[in-house]
Design brief:
With 322 residues, the chain is of the alpha/beta class. It is 30% helix and 28% strand. It contains 9 helices and 14 strands. The chain has a 6-stranded parallel β-sheet with strand order 1-4-3-2-5-6, sandwiched between helices. The protein has a 6-stranded antiparallel barrel with strand order 9-10-13-12-11-14. Strands 7-8 form a two-stranded antiparallel ribbon. Helix 6 runs antiparallel to helix 7. The longest helix has 26 residues. The protein starts with 7 loop residues before the first strand and ends with a helix.
């Protein structure tokens, strides 16, 4: 990755100016930003360096499909726009185009987009895209169209072929499926990092505190993709420091509470963190939701959940970090 912090960021397409010289451009929605996306961006940096080109990372702050969907059918986000911005900034390209996908980009003809934006505005000499990348009006632009421009000498095209794990193509769609099934280890393998939720700590109903296991209740965006209801081994980050934790996702069925929540019991932690922003990284699934008939049985089960988590950290997690 580039070492010098010289990156310039643009948030709107009509604000792009001052890009001097020739560029290499990587394009993608980067929904979830998995290991295939990492390969694409690393290829951008390598090509730009080897060919003395400025690196341009072109992506979106929203999901392009959302312009075609109503509110109920909007794409569930694996990562928030803020998380995606944070991830992309670490690569430190020369230019980060973190643009709102709008009607202009939705309706522009594919050839016009290539000629006016990529070549005209960005000075592109090399483009890096995934094998299934589509762009322009009615998504008519594709790798084949880009290749016709390459054959005429306008620019070079680098196509990133799919990455497969156990015969399955790594994709955001499959990651959502794994999260929906509670298979966080598999989702994390595709992501290349733990699935993570950010949010503010808000006041809950203090059910955990009443039985001796206080929890941090996480506010979350309604369009977040959330894991299957159940209990998980997690790492909770508070003020930049990670703590072992156990997290429940879903309804408090033992208290007849049908409101879905994300509640984290942070081990060996007693600080008051109401109102602070924390993140929860999901590492392993412990169990499904269970309705307990007594608080004693619930308390005993939580103790077993904590033992499960401690065993996981001691015998699995920390060995994987070596």
């Amino acid at each position: 990755m580039n070492q010098e912090n010289t990156m310039k960021t643009y948030m709107k397409i009509n604000e792009i100016s001052g890009i001097e010289g020739n560029t290499a451009v990587a394009m993608g929605t980067f929904d979830g930003f998995h290991i295939g996306h990492d390969k694409l961006v690393m290829t951008l940096l390598e090509i730009s360096k080897n060919n003395h080109l400025k690196s341009v990372l072109y992506t979106f702050s929203n999901h392009p499909r959302d312009l075609l969907a109503d509110v109920k059918n909007q794409t569930k986000l694996i990562i928030s726009p803020e998380q995606k911005m944070g991830i992309l900034k670490k690569y430190n390209p020369d230019y980060l185009l973190f643009l709102e996908f709008d009607d202009y980009q939705k309706n522009i003809e594919a050839e016009e987009f290539i000629e006016e934006i990529l070549i005209g505005k960005l000075g592109m000499k090399h483009i890096i895209v995934g094998y299934d990348w589509r762009f322009g009006k009615k998504a008519e632009g594709d790798v084949r169209l880009l290749k016709t421009y390459e054959s005429k000498g306008f620019f070079k095209v680098e196509v990133i072929e799919p990455i497969r794990i156990d015969g399955q193509i790594v994709s955001s769609t499959l990651i959502r499926k794994y999260l929906d099934e509670g298979r966080v280890e598999k989702a994390n393998e595709f992501l290349g990092r733990p699935y993570e939720l950010y949010g503010h700590v808000v006041h809950g109903k203090s059910n955990g505190k009443r039985i001796g296991f206080p929890t941090a209740n996480l506010s979350k965006e309604t369009n977040y993709c959330t894991v299957k209801e159940g209990v998980y081994v997690t790492l909770t980050s508070v003020c930049g420091k990670n703590y072992k934790s156990v997290t429940k996702v879903g309804r408090n069925v033992s208290f007849d509470d049908n409101e879905c929540s994300v509640e984290t019991h942070i081990l060996d932690f007693k600080d008051d963190i109401y109102g602070k922003t924390i993140s929860v990284k999901f590492l392993s699934r412990v169990r499904d939701q269970i309705k307990f008939n007594s608080l004693i049985h619930l308390s005993e089960r939580i103790k077993k959940d904590i033992d499960f988590a401690m065993n996981y950290f001691e015998n699995i997690y920390f060995k994987e970090q070596l």
